[in-house]
Design a protein that fits this description.
By secondary structure, the protein is α+β, with helices and mostly antiparallel strands. It contains four helices and six strands; from the N terminus they run ββββαααββα. The protein has a three-stranded antiparallel beta sheet with strand order 1-2-5, with no helix packed on it. A three-stranded antiparallel beta sheet has the order 4-3-6, with helices on one face. The relative contact order is 0.17.
Length: about 200
């Protein structure tokens, strides 16, 4: 950042990222994670569990976005700039990111779990969160899991992409980024039904 002339005196200027890493062993798997990169495990009965904290630090901002869209406020992103900056200033204070600050280490989540009955482990960021008309509600991981089990990550992407394409101004489904035109992985990418490693 210094070589690119970033003013490090202002926290909101810091470049940041999130991460999720899983190491699979013979009988267990372990993980480390921070930010909005989440880890979700699905068992052979199609039940799922999010294994790491979902801080959803943008919820308040997106609820404000929803209200502005409903009232016809133009240039919502620009109008929310102060709010967005205020949230960024909470990096590694109320939620964790990797941005060069040593405090990031305090927000790293770690864990280990038995592989028994686990069929799928998903690692994903907010780009695969299911768009919601009410961003104040909990994330719809049930829909994400249902789509994944029916057609893999491609099916999740297609569902998210379809909803976002129908809302190019981000008014119906409040979000910071408009849709992209193609998934960031080869297509198709579905779970392998012949993979029985985690089955009895």
């Amino acid at each position: 950042m210094q070589s690119r002339g970033v003013d490090l005196a202002y926290k909101e200027n810091l470049w940041c990222t999130s991460f999720a890493v899983v190491r699979v062993g013979a009988d267990t798997f372990e993980w480390v994670q921070s930010g909005d990169s989440l880890i979700l495990a699905i068992d052979r009965n199609d039940r799922y569990r999010v294994l790491v904290p979902d801080h959803a630090h943008d919820t308040e901002t997106l609820c404000m976005w929803r209200d502005m869209a409903a009232s016809g406020t133009p240039r919502i992103f620009e109008n929310l700039k102060e709010q967005i900056v205020a949230v960024r200033r909470q990096m590694n204070v109320t939620y964790g990111v990797l941005n060069g600050e040593p405090q990031a280490l305090d927000f790293i989540s770690r864990g280990r779990q038995n592989l028994r009955d686990i069929r799928h482990i998903l690692l994903f960021t907010d780009g695969l969160f299911i768009p919601q008309e009410d961003p104040c509600g909990a994330h719809r991981f049930d829909i994400l899991v249902e789509r994944y089990l029916s057609g893999g990550l491609q099916a999740v992407y297609d569902h998210v992409h379809q909803l976002q394409c129908a809302d190019p101004l981000c008014h119906r489904f409040p979000r910071f980024k408009p849709t992209t035109t193609s998934p960031p992985w080869p297509s198709p990418w579905a779970p392998d039904p012949t993979n029985t490693r985690y089955a009895d």
